[in-house]
What we know:
about 35% helix, 4-stranded antiparallel β-sheet, about 350 residues, 11 helices, homotetramer, alpha/beta, 9-stranded parallel β-sheet
Amino acid sequence: MIIIMERNATKVNIQKVLDLLTDNGFKVRCTEGEIHTVIDAIGDKNTVSPGRIAALEGVKEIKVIREPYRLASRDGQDEDTVISFPNGVKIGGNNKPVVMAGPCSVEEDFEGLLKVAVAAKEAGCQFLRGGAFKPRTSPYDFQGFGEKALRYLKKASEETGLLTVSEVMDASDLDMMCDYVDVLQIGARNVQNFKLLHAVGRCNKPVILKRGLASTIREFLLAAEHILYHGNKNVILCERGIRSFDSAFTRNVMDIASIPVIKKYSHLPIIIDPSHGTGQRYLIEPLAKAGLVVGADGIMIEVHHDPENALSDGKQSLPIPMFKEVMERLNRFSNRLHYEKQYLSADV
Amino acid sequence: MIIIMERNATKVNIQKVLDLLTDNGFKVRCTEGEIHTVIDAIGDKNTVSPGRIAALEGVKEIKVIREPYRLASRDGQDEDTVISFPNGVKIGGNNKPVVMAGPCSVEEDFEGLLKVAVAAKEAGCQFLRGGAFKPRTSPYDFQGFGEKALRYLKKASEETGLLTVSEVMDASDLDMMCDYVDVLQIGARNVQNFKLLHAVGRCNKPVILKRGLASTIREFLLAAEHILYHGNKNVILCERGIRSFDSAFTRNVMDIASIPVIKKYSHLPIIIDPSHGTGQRYLIEPLAKAGLVVGADGIMIEVHHDPENALSDGKQSLPIPMFKEVMERLNRFSNRLHYEKQYLSADV
Amino acid sequence: MIIIMERNATKVNIQKVLDLLTDNGFKVRCTEGEIHTVIDAIGDKNTVSPGRIAALEGVKEIKVIREPYRLASRDGQDEDTVISFPNGVKIGGNNKPVVMAGPCSVEEDFEGLLKVAVAAKEAGCQFLRGGAFKPRTSPYDFQGFGEKALRYLKKASEETGLLTVSEVMDASDLDMMCDYVDVLQIGARNVQNFKLLHAVGRCNKPVILKRGLASTIREFLLAAEHILYHGNKNVILCERGIRSFDSAFTRNVMDIASIPVIKKYSHLPIIIDPSHGTGQRYLIEPLAKAGLVVGADGIMIEVHHDPENALSDGKQSLPIPMFKEVMERLNRFSNRLHYEKQYLSADV
Amino acid sequence: MIIIMERNATKVNIQKVLDLLTDNGFKVRCTEGEIHTVIDAIGDKNTVSPGRIAALEGVKEIKVIREPYRLASRDGQDEDTVISFPNGVKIGGNNKPVVMAGPCSVEEDFEGLLKVAVAAKEAGCQFLRGGAFKPRTSPYDFQGFGEKALRYLKKASEETGLLTVSEVMDASDLDMMCDYVDVLQIGARNVQNFKLLHAVGRCNKPVILKRGLASTIREFLLAAEHILYHGNKNVILCERGIRSFDSAFTRNVMDIASIPVIKKYSHLPIIIDPSHGTGQRYLIEPLAKAGLVVGADGIMIEVHHDPENALSDGKQSLPIPMFKEVMERLNRFSNRLHYEKQYLSADV
Lengths: 348, 348, 348, 348
């Protein structure tokens, strides 16, 4: 790491920094600039954390050189992580992008869910998504049907062969959820719920980790690191929009560039969720295509058999007929991109 | 609520909105403007939620008139909530602002903690704060000493008479924590961990709820609403800075204006945390005063007996001698503000 | 507009609002809700502006129904604006997306500029871009070669047949600039330099207006409105990234969704600038494609004959050989999208 | 500066960086870390700018050690800049904070303006502020009365002895404005209108520079640097709120902490504008006090003789009677702070 001292740091201040570092086995080099003294230190940050140096008198700023997510970084593993399911579906690497579709929440009406699942299967999707536990900003909004919803999801999966995804909100639900679903999802609001990250980290189910509304890319990868660190290597990142100063036309701003950025620095697969990212039905198709063209490993889309009566997120859910049309175009688009990537070695 | 239709909404689109509303007992009134049709609807949003209307074809935007936090709002309770502790300490209303001081994390060295506690007591603080479970962005950072830390905290409290505050990160720790601490804290990263909000809502301990890095004031009050709704009326809000585009000089931007805003619309007490809000030792005193002058009901300050060796947040912790000086000036400042407010009925 | 009164607004407060509105010819309707009184008012906002109502005692909030950009909006003109150049190039509507390429700044070396121009022409670009006046955050950075740069630009244009684009920073340079360039550019930092917007509004050259770092979509369209209002109908919007809380990996966050949003609400053409939007060479191609796939009418790309010695923005400039490869793929991609849009009437 | 190379940078990449630096007289030192190679370079950034290094292949990131605002920084001038006016008023250093009051825009009614000016004078203010040229987001809003407004302002100043402040929007108005006003103001939207900064930099009038909605502290100081660099040393900074993700209750978020931060790193005086910072009448007094308590050198307040009929910003303007009460309390508060700072050498 590099330590920049305040302009008015004293010799004693500087010496104290040097001593702490050398006492802990760091190699240090100190350069007096015109204004600031700068100290380079190479060593094991587990013995002296940057925060501890920062607390010393006269330290202005610390610049850490190595990205702090070691397991998520390509520094440690260069090849893409590929997540494989028993039915042969694969996410990541050179595999064709997957599609996860389904209602925001699983509701009372199983037939409605099944209609969506059948449409998803016919459209070539690999996953059925649906919420059983819903994080809702207001306590007066629908909070999900819980285990009953998971039973429905599993039943719809058995009838269609789709894999299932559902959000886990609490570590205590984890064992139960693992009985029903193929992929666990951590929602944007829980991206720094570290207890939950650790719990899914000790699980053997793949996990979709959604980027938080205010997560930097670094924090997002560090949240993934918490899961990897606790043993679960099957983490799928999900870009779903970040908070900006403008929410008049879209709920969030989709950070499309984060996908190639993350692909450059991490080996983990990353998918996009244009439904939550925009909150607008008419933006799902263009943003899904934008995600695919920059290299996303999959798309998550909200579909409802009757959006006008949906208990949550109706505004951003596609009705089934529109979903079919969108999927037809997305499949064509995705196939062509995939074909070129595979056989023409064109840069995508 | 007010529903604004798209420019090209059809008569059928409009009729569908009107029907849904009237079928559910809303009184509606429809106005055709030059460009947009606007529908006013008065009724019970629990029967038709705004989100459900939003999902109808041709709806551009919905404007909800009444703030959605009913229990947190002065609409339902005009007088300030005052939280009273058995030892006579009170937070909120016309009571003198309280001070909560202590280390970021409780560490191995009980004597160090006790030194801080004694200094806090002598300086007139009412609460000893200290983390037992630490939410850390990186899995490689110190995560807290858990129950042992709570035992230390309680012991320091018994020796000094200070009340105690510590963060709860998981609902499963709640019963255990209630045995040790007087006030539970929900951290900024858990502000929308709804399972946890519901759990502390069913508790009978006062709760400090920290504003999330990206919480709007509305979302912050709705997070409080989740706790209130589940039965716990003793919620203390805490402004601790929000995320902005600039973190070169301060960790966060303290939204000082949020304090008088929240005081206007909610009856809940609100305190400020300039240590986390700024991340810089030299900014704690001025920002604490700024918080007091705009009406905060308390201050939370990080103090450490040896910040240069603190396991977390040393940079923003005051060492004990500096803390004593700061407290002397803060007490003088706070006393004078309180005196004027009480006896001169001057506006603060 | 809709006026929402404070909970504790008095009858006198309410009457005053009603009187002001009716005195100015508004039709009003007043609804007393459980908590808030709401007033609907239809009339000419030029006689009583929302801001004037907002200043009345007891007014909580005003919701304006009609978007305030009348000339930029599809409300007034449904068909796409198409901008045509004497040489037959067209921007907007169903025309094939254009490409504008060139160095950030035009530098001393004319041969270098010509190399870029020739490469751009050969790659099928229609415009040569290059800065003569450079807005620079620091006064110590290179500020552009001024008129000399414009002469070079014109000369390169004459030799290649490319149209030219350059940024105008001050109204007093306008006449001079119009002698040299085909399209004027207003930079992101001048998006609310209203004097400059008015001046280019009185010009008969097409104008590229870049979105400000912190412009909402509404403000962006209102900035365009200033130009349109002063008489210049040939405005080309440009999405170039907005400021967010994360600038570790990209300079800005490209708001890709803003393109289909703006296309829905405005008839003006919109292009994207992935060079400034990301600040990273490796992100230009993927983000350019993402822009095209969501409907952008053009792309602006920084190219330099020797980026390692560029006087500005070298990091985000493509060297000529890489530019050629990128353009080959972009052309293929763009042609296919255009073909489908034109002949297969597929939604893009 | 410190150059961090990409993980996969080649020896050739590294050598090229070293060569460019040494060829330009930099002293360099290269350290191979486990993952990244890091190069320290000491030398004159005017010969090789960081941007030029950044453009080299394999460079990941550059960390500049010395803050780039040399004239604005305490590195070059440790003592506070104090700006003195012929009538003895002083801004900055240990002088008592000044107050600038007046309407957002100067309007047709001179008597109204005079009423405000007299009230301001009686309340102990030193400056009368009022807009002649108004930057307005919409072209349909009132744009100011121009030179006529300046004549009114001067006349009101002559009758009361107040100094005057008004915003300059265009360099071409500068000479004319200098005939009328004592202090020029650069608005938030023009904070990076460099042509205008350069023009006021060549002026001999003091300049108030408002922080932009999305200016980092570094960019804000660099904007000041543009003025200082062109020769005008009398720059007064003004914190007026920044854009955040929440504008439901306040127009902007006032970054109160920026005041002590800027005081630490720059010698320039800084004032606050709680009227624009919050956009709410009821927040002006508390935020003004918050600004004073953290060390602001002055306050700017909008006052109108008839806010309900103001042509701009009525919502955030104080009516005269309320202004008098607020000023009485602000004066008492400010006097006490100043007294303590001067005579008790208490830290404020």
